[in-house]
């Protein structure tokens, strides 16, 4: 079944059914209480009570409005949320609860005692990479980089400085010297950063 | 520094001089009045007019020579931390002076002098160069360790020693409050010792900030409970109100110190903002105002250490925008120089004071032994319990290795010595406490200090990243910050990243325009970090392209 059809009952204000919680818990390694809490959040975002979220629902989160990358984050949510198991991405228009939790599961702290630590790190980096890669071709081009850099700092620096910083970053990160950064090159540039710590959110129980 | 040293030594010297009532100036004139004017003198020996200044400068010179030798004799410094070597030199000199019967008052470390002049530069330097990000990320563990941990240590060690004194006869008796006074000063981890040792081994920021943060902020509680028990031993009958007053005192002291520190930072930033054209003024303010904050806090019996550390931490980013790069560099150099020489003098005098104090006093080996044992055991228990508690709520957990370094890095230092010296003489066990304090300090600095480096290597503890982050890393790190902040907002959970983001917006919109000059009030975020990183990289590239690179390497490194 396409993912959009596996969902809640019609009224999203009810708690999800126990077997659905079980499925989600199994899939994402969230605990029961965490899932219940996230469902409450989902409901509060879903102001029209339709049982799914659209882009505008997320964009209306007030703190996101002042986040320079707010739009990109929302976009990434809807891309990663609509992903299939084989890792291919497709942008969807609606996000149901299961997909919502699935995206958030990427940000769980990594439990080093469990296996698949490397997968987790790569997953987190993948989310970050997707946001950069606007046209989803698997590479960050110079133009895409400038766009993101501009939204982060653009108002404060001149366009010359913008170009210089971009040049420098590409000189460092673009190993293949093909004018674009692949996912592997991105990971390599971040290898000294403690991604597990930086990109983890401690979800409340 | 020098002026007060001069006055202090002058007293000592004048007491020693035969004509003890003569003042310094009279001494000067005397050389002219006394000599029979038979012949014209070609030149004469004016030792007594320059002696005090000479002695001071000579000590500093000796300290520098000692450091020079240590730098050369790398085989020694690989084993022993520099602090322990300095203590050893102090000991040696002390023995020498002792043998030549020089007046002891010249070379004892006056606790007053220590707290007012030697300690502030070190703490300020530490606060200014503190990795703020790591500190805020670990505020929960640092708070727990410094408050609850220190209290636990103080009470547990105190009660244990009290119980032991019923079983074993120590050379002096003490009541409950006296031993609690002692245990409160002996349980405090010392920031100076931690800096001295950890700076050499350069562990990663996470461990450093936890150990050092604890050492810094436990001043609030250490001094409070020390004073509390000191006052308790004077009061006839201790009532519940006294305990409540004690608890209130803790809050007032700590939070008051924090407030004073922030105020001092605020003032420094504002003054440097408006000191535009007179280039010397900026650095002067940067050095004077925090020190005034320290003294103000001390005057109001708030925590001066917390005040000056917080001041250094808060004002960093505003200062950078207000003074020129060369002024910032000179401030950096000057604070490092001051703190380094203070540190050196402290350890040297610690060695000297041991000789000065200990010759007449016997050392109670049993008491010392039990104190050291209790310090180690109780700290270990405390760390394990606290980390187990913290690990349930934190993302970044404390591994076994981390916890070990936390236990092992609990070094005691001169603050304990200063407090021990100021125990009132009416306490019969004072000398025993003092010598035990010295013994514990020696034990931690020599034994733990010298073995921590091989242990760090053996346990593969992650070391501090020595290179600057690359341009790509700087940009991406900021980028990831925003992502996490956004995801936290979507998930409705106020985590670390979104709090940092909130502060950043507040900072940029309100604080920076007030505290920094030429700060264009643009959108909600601040690009200076990325721009500065870019400037650093291009400068380094340009330098390395010239043939004078080796000389300039140091310049680039400082900037």
Structure description:
Chain B: It is found in: Membrane. Chain B: Its main location: membrane. Chain B: The chain crosses the membrane at residues 52-70, 79-97, 112-130, 142-164, 179-198, 249-271, 302-319, 340-361, 367-389, 401-420, 432-456. Chain B: This is Sodium/hydrogen exchanger. Chain B: It is a multi-pass membrane protein. Chain A: InterPro entries: Calcineurin_B_homologous (IPR051875), EF-hand-dom_pair (IPR011992), EF_Hand_1_Ca_BS (IPR018247), EF_hand_dom (IPR002048). The complex is a heterodimer of chains A (205) and B (559). Chain A is an all-alpha fold and 205 residues long. Chain A contains eleven helices and two strands; from the N terminus they run αααααααβααβαα. Chain A has a two-stranded antiparallel ribbon with strand order 1-2. In chain A, helix 5 (70-80) crosses helix 7 (117-132) and helix 8 packs across helix 9 (159-173). The longest helix of chain A is centred in the middle third of the chain and has 16 residues, at 117-132. The radius of gyration of chain A is 18 Å and the shape is globular. Chain B has 559 residues and is mostly helical. Chain B contains 23 helices and no strands. Chain B is globular, with a radius of gyration of 26 Å. The longest helix of chain B has 35 residues, at 240-274. The chains are: A mainly alpha (205), B mainly alpha (559). At the A-B interface, helix 2, helix 5, helix 7, helix 8 and helix 9 of A face helix 20, helix 21 and helix 22 of B.
Task: Tell me the layout of helices and strands.
The complex is a heterodimer of chains A (205) and B (559).
Chain A: H1 18-28, H2 32-45, H3 55-59, H4 62-65, H5 70-80, H6 97-105, H7 117-132, E1 139-141, H8 142-153, H9 159-173, E2 180-182, H10 183-189, H11 195-198
Chain B: H1 2-16, H2 24-34, H3 47-72, H4 74-79, H5 82-99, H6 111-128, H7 132-137, H8 139-167, H9 176-186, H10 191-201, H11 205-232, H12 240-274, H13 281-299, H14 304-322, H15 325-358, H16 365-391, H17 400-408, H18 414-421, H19 430-458, H20 471-491, H21 496-515, H22 528-545, H23 549-558
Helix pairs in contact in B: 3-5, 3-15, 5-15, 6-13, 6-14, 6-15, 6-18, 8-9, 8-11, 8-16, 9-11, 10-11, 11-12, 12-13, 12-14, 13-14, 13-15, 16-17, 16-19, 18-19, 20-21, 20-22, 22-23
